[in-house]
Amino acid sequence: MFDTFPALRRTSIAAIAISAAGFLLPGCTTTPPSKPSAPAKTDTRQSLDSAASATLSKLYQAAPSSKELVAGARGVLIFPDVLSGSFIVGAEHGKGVLRVGDSAVGYYQTTSGSIGFQAGAQSKAMVLLFMTDEALNKFRNSSGWTVGADATVAIVNVGANGRIDSNTAKKPVVGFVMNNGGLMAGVSLEGTKISKYEP
Question: How far apart are the first and last CA of the chain?
């Protein structure tokens, strides 16, 4: 009978210790912590659409005559932010939206790589214009599309007066590349891979 109380005390102390451990060490429970809810897909799509509109506005400011060219395109693929970072082996990655008329009809991602000393990180925007139905349909029906292998992208030349080189504008696929300093000249998108993306 005298042994009952020490046993009860030991049991109570053990119970208190386990409860305290539960408060002090919540990470040790077998139930995994609840994950933060993922952002809704519409949020990502809305942010891409908004960024794409802003990119087109910057393009129109840099080259006013580009607005007419964009209006005449069968489809416009806009990558607002293509980030490149490299030291010896470089890589670029970005996400964008394809518009036909004023409607977003698909979302895409782009990747490319290069070898050479290119220390640092840079960001640029790319706008590709599909000037013919054939060029647009070939792009939309592809499972993966590579500049140079599947189609040539003619980078638009803009003169000092802001006018676009008419010869370049007649190509099936033309493109603009911009950074913080404005339109980039003499760049190549050769080897750039573009594939479908579901935000």
Answer: 70
164 secondary structure, DSSP code: B
For residue 4, count CB atoms less than 10 angstroms from its CB and return exposed for 0-12, middle for 13-18, buried for 19 or more.
exposed
| 3-state secondary structure labels for all residues of 24-80 | HCHHHCCCCCCCCCCCCHHHHHHHHHHHHHHHHHHHHHHCCCHHHHHHHCCEEEEEE
- Whole-model pTM: value is 0.73
**CA–CA separation, 29 vs 33, rounded Å?**
9
Residue 173 contacts residue 190 (beta carbons within 8 Å): no
Sign of the alpha-carbon torsion through 145, 148, 150, 153: positive
Interior/surface letters 24-37, b for 16+ CB within 10 angstroms, e for the rest: eeeeeeeeeeeeee
Q: Are 192 and 146 in contact (CB under 8 A)?
A: yes
Tell me which residue has tokens 């000037």: 131
Model pLDDT for residues 149-197, shown as the tens digit of each residue = 888 999 887 776 667 777 777 899 999 999 888 888 778 888 899 999 8
Bridge partners of 177?
126
Residue 81 has what DSSP assignment?
Answer: E
